[in-house]
């Protein structure tokens, strides 16, 4: 079903905007200005912390309702619940395969380049303190199956209040399935959900107008607080992580998109505003709502986007997986802890589980790392103090890689479902105005107003300041 004509003018208008009125230009300018501010006036940069945190908080305020409304609307519009289960299983299968590849890439890189060799840090001299001590404490209290036991919220309202995406997904899927199962009784609710989605996305549009300000404050604080010199102290590890992540995105994910007959560089360019937003705020969550909209603009069905992207934020963390394998073996090398191939594969097996559900939470990478080291016991958990100071500069790369991985995952699942129009995707990537697709076609006898899914999409969602 084609997008309604009413949405076309605004999107054409957006495509014709000059570069200096595009969001990516202002976010990029804000990031550069923030770096200079934090470098030249560190105290002023630190004082700007509330600017960045307030913007991220405003985005997080909208994430749980957007995830809930998108999933419920997507499930409520499909012609069969079997399709929902099929999309979910395919997504999880791809996520697990992607996580395994990312962990292996990180493991190979750290063994080849050995950035921790020669550090010779004695575990007894490493004393946990501050946030690092709390992260290790939290990690030691986590079991390898925690992501399964944490799936069910104690309270539906509590899941939304705490911003636990995994629990919100669980409740949303149950709600959507029940809504579909009750038949005609639930149709007015589906219609209401799509109308409410339009309001929430309009609020998102207003919040996104402050994106450059938020990116400026966050970057100024990071440089002012930790200093540029921090980057050089463990530069080899940082460089290896960034290089490995770039290899994963360009070569591994690029090969996947090549099989789909899609150019990875054009896809990255299409999502440039989202990548810059993540770079400026160090949070992949800040780009989640816009990512979902952009993928729908490529012609991916809304129910696929609604199920795959939010779930991927908990189960498909490619950047976090690379970080975990790199960091764990680096600590082993730096503390002169011998690790055989068998022991490293054992670490990898545990990371396949501890990496799940670690997205979107401050310190989640450290908690997952501490949980892994505590579970295996071969590498001292106190060794995370060796990399604690540079974690802030590595979090941006984790978030960027996670964003790229979830974008590709959504396209793969759509292709797996045989509903990906590659010609349309490439047309949009070459500059054609994005068009939000309708929900899956429904049978004539089913009166559910699925067309409203398209109409409910705010026309200005692609607009940038």
Automatic annotation (TrEMBL):
For this protein, the record's SUPFAM superfamilies field holds: Proton glutamate symport protein
Task: Give its localization.
Answer: Membrane
Membrane topology according to the record: Multi-pass membrane protein
Q: Which domain of life is it from?
A: Bacteria
Q: Where is this region: Disordered?
A: 434-465
**UniProt keyword annotation of Membrane present:** yes
Q: What keywords sit in the KW lines? A: Membrane, Transmembrane, Transmembrane helix, Transport
Name of the featured protein: C4-dicarboxylate transporter DctA
This chain's source organism reads Streptomyces yanii
């Amino acid at each position: 079903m084609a997008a309604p004509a009413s949405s076309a003018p605004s999107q054409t208008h957006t495509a014709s905007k000059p570069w200096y009125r595009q969001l990516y230009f202002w976010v990029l300018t804000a990031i550069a200005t923030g770096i200079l501010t934090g470098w030249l006036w560190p105290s002023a940069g630190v004082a700007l912390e509330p600017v960045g945190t307030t913007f991220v908080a405003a985005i997080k305020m909208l994430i749980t309702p957007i995830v809930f409304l998108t999933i419920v609307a997507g499930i409520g519009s499909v012609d069969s619940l079997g399709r929902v289960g099929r999309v979910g299983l395919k997504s999880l299968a791809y996520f697990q395969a992607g996580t395994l590849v990312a962990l292996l890439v990180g493991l190979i890189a750290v063994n080849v380049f050995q950035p921790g060799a020669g550090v010779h840090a004695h575990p007894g001299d490493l004393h946990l303190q501050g946030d690092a001590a709390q992260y290790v404490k939290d990690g030691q209290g986590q079991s390898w199956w925690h992501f399964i036991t944490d799936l069910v919220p104690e309270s539906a309202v509590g899941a939304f209040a705490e911003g636990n995406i995994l629990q919100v997904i669980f409740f949303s899927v149950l709600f959507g399935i029940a809504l579909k199962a009750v038949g005609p009784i639930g149709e007015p609710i589906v219609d209401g959900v799509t109308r409410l989605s339009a309001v929430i996305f309009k609020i998102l549009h207003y919040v996104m107008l402050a994106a450059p300000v938020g990116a400026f404050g966050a970057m100024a604080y990071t440089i002012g607080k930790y200093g540029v010199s921090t980057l050089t102290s463990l530069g080899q590890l940082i460089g290896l992580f960034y290089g490995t992540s770039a290899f994963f995105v360009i070569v591994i994910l690029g090969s996947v998109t090549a099989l789909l007959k899609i150019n990875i560089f054009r896809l990255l360019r299409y999502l440039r505003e989202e990548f810059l937003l993540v770079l400026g705020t160090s949070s992949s969550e800040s780009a989640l709502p816009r990512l979902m909209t952009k993928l729908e603009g490529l012609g991916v069905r809304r129910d696929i986007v609604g199920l795959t992207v939010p779930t991927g934020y908990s189960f498909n963390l490619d950047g976090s997986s690379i970080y975990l394998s790199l960091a764990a073996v680096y600590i082993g090398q730096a503390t002169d802890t011998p690790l055989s191939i068998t022991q490293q594969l054992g670490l990898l097996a545990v990371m396949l589980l501890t990496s799940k559900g670690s997205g979107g939470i401050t310190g989640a990478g450290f908690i997952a790392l501490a949980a892994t080291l505590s579970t295996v016991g071969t590498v001292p958990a106190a060794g995370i103090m060796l990399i604690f100071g540079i974690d802030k500069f590595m979090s941006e790369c984790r978030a960027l890689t996670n964003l790229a991985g979830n974008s590709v995952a959504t396209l793969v699942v759509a292709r797996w479902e045989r509903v990906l129009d590659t010609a349309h995707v490439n047309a949009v990537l070459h500059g054609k105005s994005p068009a939000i697709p309708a929900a899956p076609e429904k049978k004539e006898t089913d009166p559910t107003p699925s067309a409203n899914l398209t109409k409910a999409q705010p026309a200005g969602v692609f607009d940038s300041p």
